[in-house]
Amino acid sequence: MSDNAVPAAPLEPPVPITKPVKATGLHIGEPAPGCAKVDPILVVDNVRRTFGGLTAVDVDHVEVPRGAITALIGPNGAGKTTLFNLLTGFDKPDDGKWTFNGRSLAGVPAYRVARMGQIRTFQLTKALGLLTVMDNMLLGAKGQTGENMFRALMPFLWRNEEEQNRAKALDLLTRFKLDTKKDDYAASLSGGQRKLLEMARALMSDPTLVMLDEPMAGVNPALTQSLLDHILNLKAQGMSVLFVEHDMHMVRHIADWVIVMAEGKVVAEGDPHEVMKNPAVIDAYLGQHHDEDIGEDPDAEIVHVSAVKELLDDER
Amino acid sequence: MDWGAIFNNAAVELISPTTAAYALAALGLAVHFGYTGLLNFGQAGFMALGAYGYAISILTFGFPVWGAFLVGVGASVLFALILGIPTLRLRADYLAIVTIAAAEIVRLLFTTNTFASVTGSANGLSGYKNEFAALNPLADGSYGSGPFENNAYDTWLRIVAWSIVIIAALLVWQIMRSPWGRVIKGIREDEDAVRALGKNVYAYKMQSLILGGVFGTIAGMIFALPRAVVPSNYQTTLTFFIYAILLLGGAATVLGPIIGSMIFWVLLSFFSGFMARAVEAGWLPFMTSIQAGQLRFVLVGVAIMLIVIFRPQGIFGNKKELAFVR
């Protein structure tokens, strides 16, 4: 993917009809990298992951606030997805520990992390193609009796539970406007619908923290607004959200808090409008020498200037 | 040419115990490959463990039939655990390599002279049928009619073999429409997604490997009962025949492996009879009868290729699924 810090997309970003209510007063003290939160749901300490000689993630300390939408941004290769994989148990760090809801998650396998209520989605959607949309949804429900091999042979043990899950799934599908597709294979859905399905499926387990890896990647603009509303709804229902995103308009629109990563480290944190002005963030995206005339590529310089201008324009 | 005899011999295979054994082994592979996406290329190894486990328990240790049965099943559960523990965390292709190698190791262990006193080495084992025959409730005499006429022992064996196949098919049908089956099919599609939803993928894959492996083991016992246990029967080609049956019938289906096995054996028997008589009648002057015997596998191969090309989802597979195959 191209570096979306330069939002040169020809399409206009979706214009918010109503401005979402932002959660404020999340942090204690100055909004510096690693600053303490009033009520953190996820606390990360000294997590490091290297691939050979490359240090992909090296986070000293970071806290994710509860009941808010937190964006994790940064240029390509900043280690956002690697950090995601580490926090959800899909990858093992070289070092470090982190807690979710006060419980340590270091060394806990991915499926247990999910059972604790920290559910993730993937950058490349993982809809289960040859299962129906309904089966995809039912798979999301937690603690099913019929998922035990021996109890599976005795349908009377799990029939009621299955009916309840089905009703719940149908309710969620209706909210995500997928109810008419419930008997189709997930493979027949469009890319955007798969994103919606993946999010709806994650909600089947009533998570406390939803982690979305680039929820907008590859989604057509018409569907973006609906996805944004769904994410805002998660907060309204009391869930916390942590998402990775490249689209700055979206980040500004819905995020209550922004964590900026660059080269594996957290370089800035803060309110989405303030953090864009942070010199460390501009350096991270545009390179440290973006304001010096290198004198070789004037076009590139114009792009940079207009990008910074746009970042500042959006403040209003 | 005696067409009557050719068709008669082919019809015999329709309900023969060997057909039942292949159907059951293919049903095990359907659980592995069709539903879970596990590439098990060692089904012949599971079958060998069943056959030898049963025969050795009776001949060497004098176990009753049920004890020998349990020994075979226990051996295959152990085999599945040994295969699965190191490989199920890895990508699917590794399981394929490990299972094909492990099945060969099993076969060579049964072939080696070192254990000849127990395994009979390359000559194999025989003379373990009396215990099973003693359980026969049927009076002596002949049962059935036409190509399906058999003596009491053979009829008893057919009843037991096909009863087991039917029970296994009902079991697979029930378990695959349960939430357990849903997780299993999810793992086939994308195991990381299933893991992210809080399912212990490793445990599910292990359960699937054991379930399908036990089917293979019981199939090995049924396969051994009408003949002797000979190690050369359990070569890799056996696994590939079972894969052919599975793809013929439809990989993620319950009836597919059973009907696929019937078609496979009827075709094999038909071509075998036809070729032998065609050479006898001088229709194929360029061919010896030994070459003709081998040619039946070529013809079965061609028949299977035609089915896979023109009906790639198998006989019972869902055509809709193929529209989305990556």
From TrEMBL, chain A:
GO terms for cellular component: plasma membrane. One of its GO terms (molecular function) is ATP binding. It comes from the Bacteria. InterPro entries: AAA+_ATPase, ABC_AA/LPS_Transport, ABC_transporter-like_ATP-bd, ABC_transporter-like_CS, BCA_ABC_TP_C, P-loop_NTPase. Residues 42-288 form the ABC transporter domain. This is ABC transporter ATP-binding protein. SUPFAM superfamilies: P-loop containing nucleoside triphosphate hydrolases. It comes from Cryobacterium flavum. It holds the Pfam family ABC_tran. Keywords: ATP-binding, Nucleotide-binding, Transport. The keyword Transport applies. The keyword ATP-binding applies.
UniProtKB/TrEMBL annotation, chain B:
One of its GO terms (cellular component) is plasma membrane. One of its GO terms (molecular function) is branched-chain amino acid transmembrane transporter activity. Keywords: Cell membrane, Membrane, Transmembrane, Transmembrane helix. It is found in: Cell membrane. Its main location: membrane. It holds the Pfam family BPD_transp_2. It comes from Cryobacterium flavum. This is Branched-chain amino acid ABC transporter permease. InterPro entries: ABC_transp_permease (IPR001851), LivM-like (IPR043428). The chain crosses the membrane at residues 20-39, 46-63, 69-88, 95-116, 156-176, 209-230, 236-255, 291-310. It is a multi-pass membrane protein. The keyword Metal-binding does not apply.
